[in-house]
Amino acid sequence: MRAVSWWIVWDDLKWPDDDVYDKIKRRADLMKASNTDTAVIFGAHFRWDFMPIWDCLHDLMATIADELHQRDLKLIDHHSSVLVHRYSNRKEMRNVKMHSGPHLPFSPSYQAAASWEFNGHKLDDWRMIDVTTGKPVYLPAYTAEEFCFNNPDFTRSYLEYVKLLLKETKIDGLMCDDAIFFSGYSSCGCKHCKDKFQKLYGHELPEAAESSFWGNWKNPAWKNWLQMRYQSNGDFLSLVKSVLPEDFPLMSCCSGSSNAGYNCTGQDVRQFNRSCNMVHLEMCGNTPPFNDPGTSNPPVSHRLVSASHHLAAAMQKNLPCVGQGYGFTEAGANIIWAANKMLGANCWFSTLKARLGLPVSKISHLPDDAEAAAKAFTFEKEHPELFKSSINSELGVYFSYNTRNNSFFGSTEHGYAHDYFDTLEHFFSSGLTPRTILEIPTDINSCRAIILPSALCLSDIERENIGKYIANGGTIFATGPFGLYDGNGDASPSPLLSEYGINIDFTEPQKPTDFWGKKWLFEESASCKNQKQWYELTSNFFWHPARIQEKNNTLTLSEKVRPFLGNPPLEIVNAEGWLSLLHSSSDASRTCIMHMLSAEYEVEADQKLEAQRKHRSRVNLITGVKPLNASRKVDFSLNAKFKEIKVFMPFENSEARVLEEKDTVTIYLPENCSYFIVTAKDK
Asked: What is the pTM of this model?
């Protein structure tokens, strides 16, 4: 899939105006010419707010679908199933308009919304309830409220809407967004959530002041509550799937599933995948990052970690992945596309012009989404052999859901997930190819070596699998606090390393001192006090007490791991400043494919327009991207079984210079090359 956003803007609501129809045809032509194959609706996002004009909106979408279908392109609808903009005064109204422009905020006031009904129910009766106040949840970031997807009146009504949508629009797929707990731990305290908790686990939900429950990871009932919240979005999407045609494309917006914050919101791609047949990753903010503290700027390596986790979840069910990134020009679109291709994901490129806080007259010159993505999409279409592949990795990095979900250590920003991220980022930049694994294998068919970073919680099955894996010749490297708790997050009577004569000196705080204050989320996390060295438990089982996020740690993971891996077709000898992932072709050509992406960038933005913005929100108007601190000379060693080295540079007009000497390959890159692909064929 090569997708871009199809933006619905205020002028489009003039439909069926002929000017709108002409614009639809021009945009469809542009998408076809750019080698886009899928358009995804963006705008009219908080769909319940558009209820008075659904007839007009659906007719507009049906016309868009018709024009796309005539050009052999597909249309996916994309909307929020649960969020509604609400305001009570002019200040809040202006906040909606200014900060939520991409949603096309066609929103009623509280007074108007109070009378709205659908399917025999008032919409206001569906709202989530804040457990700390007993009032409807309010989301200041969106100037919005949220409907509860555990409310059966809401779910039945939403399913009726989906059936109406399918009947009236001719869409080819659905992206059903936002069935998570946006307000965090304070939601949801409605009757339906309380009843579900009682039914599933036999617990009553305590008042917010009950500190023995809220934020107490030693309390089994608290962990049951967190699990119910995770399960609830999966339950909702299962209902949505039930009214869709068989195999109808379904996905849900997911900005990640692996950091500590998702215990807060109950967002997990595995729950989505109970029903979705496409795995989505939203790359929020700028890609690549820009030096602006007022926007969101994670490093590119961070993007790869989030994608690696989603890819692991997708592989469990053989589902395709799509990564959605935001930019405004070809320069940004290229890097977003490249980051997705690194992991073998499809790319959805989207502009986000209404997020800039600038009038339309100031940004009308910016390219359409399809125009910005044309170079990357054209290269992908012309070279399908480079992208029909799977990651060639003998190195697994284990993501411990038990640790993340069932411990206080797993729920802070500097806790478990930080070590998972840092470990993968280390290997991406070291020349080795890691991949996330969500289960510990019992043999070495899929992984020769496994890293378990700070896996504090280990279930009986995980411990058993570790033993079998080691016995079958696999090698394990564990770091940080390891195996002190069981799978439920309770202290183990016999921690795993005690079987090897090691007592891990680690003390985890029992619970936050001020749970609702949330400062605990960002406090420093505990570390092991054992002497910082590698402990050889057996010839293929090693433990180091250091956590990789600790400054000046002595882990040297890549050097420690490398001797235990096989001889890859193409091995990086020197590639300073580059992130890499090795793939193997899925066809009969037996080609190895190495993707190389610059880790850092010199990024330019339109400073004139940036200075005129009325607010800073998530993204910058990036106009130029150059690689930074990425060596122009890259050296590989080539396995004797492989030959025919080729170098592809999707964004460059000049060619790389390649020197081959025996089993060594040196590539000299053009000055501004930020992404290249190297292939070698099996003899």
From this structure: 0.97
How far lies 62's CA from each of 104, 254, 418, 644, in Å?
19, 26, 45, 49
* CB-facing half-sphere around the CA of 395: CA atoms within 13 A: 25
Cα dihedral sign, 574-576-582-585: negative
Model confidence at 679: pLDDT above 80: yes
User: Backbone phi, then psi, for 410, in 5-degree steps?
Assistant: -80, -5
Q: Under DSSP, is residue 305 helix (H, G, I), strand (E, B) or coil?
A: helix
> What is the distance between the terminal CA atoms of the chain, rounded to a whole angstrom?
32
Cα–Cα–Cα angle for 346, 323, 250, nearest 5°?
A: 80
Round to whole Å and give the CA distance between 243 and 530: 56
**pLDDT (average), residues 58-76:** 99
Which amino acid, residue 321? C
pLDDT for 615: 84
Instruction: Convert 324-342 to b/e letters by CB count within 10 Å (16 or more is b).
Output: bbbbbbbbbbbbbbbbbbb
Inter-residue contact 314 to 279 (CB < 8 Å): yes
Q: Is the peptide bond before 288 cis (omega within 30 degrees of 0)?
A: yes
Q: Which helix (H) or strand (E) holds 84?
A: strand 83-85
Residues 6+ apart with CB under 8 A from 454: 400, 403, 409, 415, 416, 419, 420, 479, 480, 481, 482, 547
The answer to whether the bond into 108 is cis (omega within 30° of 0) is: no
* 3-class state of residue 308 by DSSP: helix
Over residues 618-645, mean pLDDT: 94
What is residue 350's predicted lDDT score, i.e. its pLDDT?
A: 99
8 Å CB contact between 102 and 43: yes
Neighbouring-strand partners of residue 393 = none
What is residue 457's DSSP assignment?
B
Instruction: Give the integer Cα–Cα distance in Å for 483 and 81.
Output: 40
Across the chain, mean pLDDT equals 96
3-class secondary structure, 203? coil
Do the Cβ atoms of 283 and 324 come closer than 8 Å?
Answer: yes
Coil, strand or helix: which one is 97?
A: helix
Nearest to 678 by CA among 635, 646, 651, 655: 646
The helix or strand, by DSSP H or E, that contains position 113, with its residue range, turns out to be helix 110-113
Cα dihedral 556→560→562→566 (10° resolution): -160
Cβ partners under 8 Å of residue 199, min gap 6: none
CA distance 431 to 598: 13
Measured distance CA(539)–CA(536) in Å, rounded:
7
Integer Cα distance of 349 and 332 in angstroms: 9
d(CA 196, CA 191): 9
Which tokens sit at 117?
């009904």
Residue range 266-280, pLDDT digits in tens: 999 999 999 999 999
Type of residue at 28: A
Task: Go through the domains of the chain in sequence order and give each one's CATH number.
Answer: 2-277 (3.20.20.80), 395-564 (3.40.50), 570-682 (no CATH)
- Partners of 535 in beta bridges: 543
